[in-house]
Every structure is written in C-alpha cells, then in structure tokens.
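so im writing up the methods section and need the MerR family transcriptional regulator record in one place, dumping it here so i stop losing it
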Amino acid sequence: MIISKFSEAAGISASALRYYEKKGLLRVNRDPAGRRDYSEDDIEWVKFLQRLKDTGMLLRDIRHYSDLRYQGDSTVEERMALLVRHRESVLEEQKKWEGYLRNLDEKIHIYEKKIEERKT
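--- predicted struct ---
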C-alpha cells in the first residue's frame, strides 16, 4: 500500500509516517522501485504507536518497545514489563490531573458562590 493510502487508512500524516520510519519506530518494506510498501499489519502498529505517544510514553521508550517488537515473540515479557511500567506512570499522571481538576472545581465553586451572593 502506498504512503498516501496508508496515511489515510491509519489516520496519520505522511510526514508523521516518515518521521516514525526515520526514528526506527516503523520498518517499512520497499517495492522494487524503492517506494514504501505498507502492509495491513502496519496500520494497527501505527495506531498503537500513536496511542503510546498520546499516553505520554517517551520516544526512547517507544523506540525500545518497537525494537523489541521487531525482534519477535521472544521479547514478549520485556515488552509487557515496559507497558506495565508505563501504565504505572499513566496512573500517577491521572492522580495528578484529578488533583488539578479538584482545585479548579473548588475555585469555580468559590466564584459561583460570589456571583450568587452579589445577586442577593
């Protein structure tokens, strides 16, 4: 599949795909003319890379995970350990953001009370 069709199918820009390839996150086959030739399996892989990025995983950790993935099933335990560590990090971030949200809600509540008091 050529890059434009793959980009559309994966929901990611062609420039991002080239970046992923340059950083070693995505290994793409080439046709005899040297053009990128993406497979259907690459779509889910790219979507997973995006989810890792969206959750705040560091690029070096995504690269390490990608390297392990391309090594095959012998690395499943190490990949799982990476994901478990990242999950713990996401949970910590979630707790932090819940605190931020509570603080905002408290401040909004104070303003709501002040506005209501001015009306009476």
